[in-house]
Amino acid sequence: MAIETTYRLPPHAAKRLAELQAIRDGLKPKERQVLDHVFADGCQNKQIAARMKYSVRSVENCRASLVVKFGAETMNQVGVLYGEWSALSMLSVTAEPEGVSRGV
């Protein structure tokens, strides 16, 4: 039988995660893809446009929309919020201790 350990976030961190998750959940699929390309892959607008087969202008519009939806003033601020969401998301997962596997 596997033993699971749940890492619980403090209430203020859980509230912040919920706020950021609500913003992320409200994004259109195209906006999520642009967000991931910008911050996970470090891509520029032209690279994102080529990967997604969109115009550069369309990518620029998505980036502008992300700034508004995150309540930020710049994409750098969106990046900070994206990083915060990512870190809090990773901390809130259920993990198994090393060397313990689930019974099937």
Write out key terms for the chains shown.
single chain, mainly alpha, 4% strand
The tally of domains stands at 1
Structural class: mainly alpha
Oligomer: single chain
Describe the largest sheet.
2 strands, antiparallel
Q: Measured on Cα atoms, how large is the radius of gyration?
A: 17 Å
**Backbone shape:** elongated
What is the CATH architecture descriptor? Orthogonal Bundle
Distance between the termini: 10 Å
Number of strands: 2
Q: Which topology does CATH recognise?
A: Arc Repressor Mutant, subunit A
Order of helices and strands: EHHHHHE
Helix percentage: 55-70%
Extract low-pLDDT stretches. 94-98
Provide the β-strand percentage band: under 5%
Strand order of the largest sheet: 1-2
**Averaged pLDDT:** 84
CATH class: Mainly Alpha
Please give the count of helices. Answer: 5
CATH superfamily: Winged helix-like DNA-binding domain superfamily/Winged helix DNA-binding domain
Short account of what is shown:
This protein is mainly alpha-helical and 104 residues long. Helices cover 62% and strands 4% of the residues.
Notes on the protein architecture:
With 104 residues, the protein is mainly alpha-helical. The chain has a single domain, classed as Arc Repressor Mutant, subunit A (Orthogonal Bundle), CATH 1.10.10.10. The protein is 62% helix and 4% strand. The protein has five helices and two strands, in the order βαααααβ. It has a two-stranded antiparallel sheet. The longest helix has 17 residues. The radius of gyration is 17 Å and the shape is elongated. About 5% of the residues have low confidence.
